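User: Quick sanity check before I run a bigger batch. Here is a single chain. Can you write out its predicted 3D structure?
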Amino acid sequence: MGEYIKLKRTFDKEAVLTMVECYKDNPSYASYSQLFDELVEQYLDKITPKGYVEIYKEQNRIECLVTLGPDCDRWIREAFDHYMYLEGMLLNSLFDMMLYEASNQLYETVKTMVPKGKHLSMRYEPGQLNVPMQEQRYIFERLQKSCDLQMSITQGCMLNPTKSTVYYYELVDYECAFGIDHDCSHCQTPCSNKKHTITIKNPDSLQVLQIIQGKKGENILDVLRQNHRFVDAPCGGKKVCGKCKIQVEEHGFCIEDVERAFLGEHLVEEGFILACYHELDRDLVMLSNEIGVMEEMNTPQKTHIEAEYTPYKITEPKYSKDERTPHFGVAIDIGTTTIVVSLIDLVSKETIATKKVLNPQKAYGADVISRIQYVNEHKEHDLGTSIRNKLWELTKVLLEDHAQQRGAKTLVEIEEMVISGNTTMIYLLLDIVPEKLAIAPFETVCPPPIVCSSQDVWDIPYRFDIVVIPWVSAYVGGDIVSGMYMTQFDQTPGNNLFIDIGTNGEMAIKTENGLVSAATAAGSAFEGANIKCGMGSLDGAICEIHRQEEGYGIVTLGGEKAIGINGSALVDGVALLLEDKKVNAMGYMESPEMIFEHIGFYPEDIRQLQLAKSAICAGVDVLIDEAGIQVEDIDTVYIAGGFGSHLNIKHAITIGLIPKALESKVNVIGNASLGGAIRCLLERRGKEKIVGIAKVCQYLELSSNYRFNTAYMERMIFEME
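Assistant: Done. Predicted structure follows.
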């Protein structure tokens, strides 16, 4: 029996106007636009797009029909009969667009009907790809028997009403369509919705990994991002970082001087382009290396929480180790660069497994400001959807892996989930408009309820509580509150300093006078962005540079061949260059210094590091001054974040990132944001303690602080021995 699906009425106004050759720079654009809006108001609610689907398993085939109903033909005909040609053309184009969008919606339903072990082909349409028009009659008559279509077909195989379409898919044993529904490269119909394909191949085996499509004229970086293909683009596509390198076979694009300077002649000769510099105006074949995929990193199984976060003991556990009923929770850290998700056994207090991936939003900019700007400029963005989908995908994988390891057929139930992240990341997660976060006085909305339901965030059948760790301000987020909670920062005796060295440079100081926090725009140098050979902390990143008998030695993450430099290696490298007098106190560097093959440091990299380290140092100076103490009075320093995990403290002192007086007082605590989320899962009064920290923590705004601006300039200089 065929299945009837009611479809939504959707269209793209600008695309419809383009179909009648009306563009924004056209003098008639305003009148065309107004007329279009009037037609939509008059007719839209009267249209009910319908889809019909029948699956024939014996023939390995799915047949579909989509129609807008009979009224559309009548309205178009009446417009032309009354010599209202423009109205007729606009209605015709609008209905064509709605039919196209309706068929795209039906495709999402069709994908869910594919039997296990089978894959969908691309769409086969009568009159296209050597499919005879007689196939239209064959499909129509079969669907007519199982569905009440209230339609007809002519002797010439034309459908009535005309705003209808039929087509079919084959069910095959291998992936051949890669999620592509309609292949425009084989379509013979003139169409303003023309799309080009980017076929992505492994550079060694030339195996097809993925096929994606984008509209003609779309920016290639945007097409890759929309299809969840990660390309490093710290500047968010503004053509200033030179990082969105992709290798394309025989592309034929003209490489201008600025792009050529970013790439270098050797990469230009190998077919590399910068994705943000070019529009998609032809079919392309892109060669992808592994860095282009959202990389996953797993922790060893059964890592004990108390071992990983020594000496932060759980003093008030929710469950004793004698508890016989199993209880499980999920802890999440949403970082600007990476996402980490951990499955926690709440009884044994063990981390069962962890997944770490690049934040899919990173392709829209390396820092929160870039992403806020992108959201402000693209109202139809999907940054919130992308992060929610990724979080649930990782959570589900953890649950499935755990079930497989236990030999169980059912997944364990999540009792509670705790999510930590900076303010912007939480805004995007919850679809709160972040516009005011980037504009003085950097106001935030009231923090959302600390507890919400999983079904408020995802469309899933599972219900469990989600704890969202609250923020202090626009730039001191829940990740810092979580870190302070993990270390019991506010309860530890003495004068304590907490620093998360990253893009936002959040910090806090605790003395007998209270708890004060601040944030400084350190930039993304410590994340590897805006550095000529920089990259995030992925396999192949140089994470340590040290002296050896001849030149410099390196250590890479994962033991892989070096492909770039991460933030901790940047600190190492510049410290060694300062010691060797290859960089002077003002940051001047005469020529690039290679560390490994073609990977090295450039003069502009030194400037980026100076900007980042002086922002952190100046922030610390002002906080200490605000507390009414001296740097020597600090008892304990906590350095948090993934960057801090690999930081060589002596090298950090050499470049002036950390005062020498604090050398013996530094504790590197790793991902404290995740640690606090885990602690909250395990501790009986975790939520109350977290809310308490957020409420008592004061915020000091540095952007207009005179002391900060003075210290910032002073700290730019390297102190040479």
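The first strand starts at residue 3 and ends at 6.

User: Great, the batch can go ahead then.
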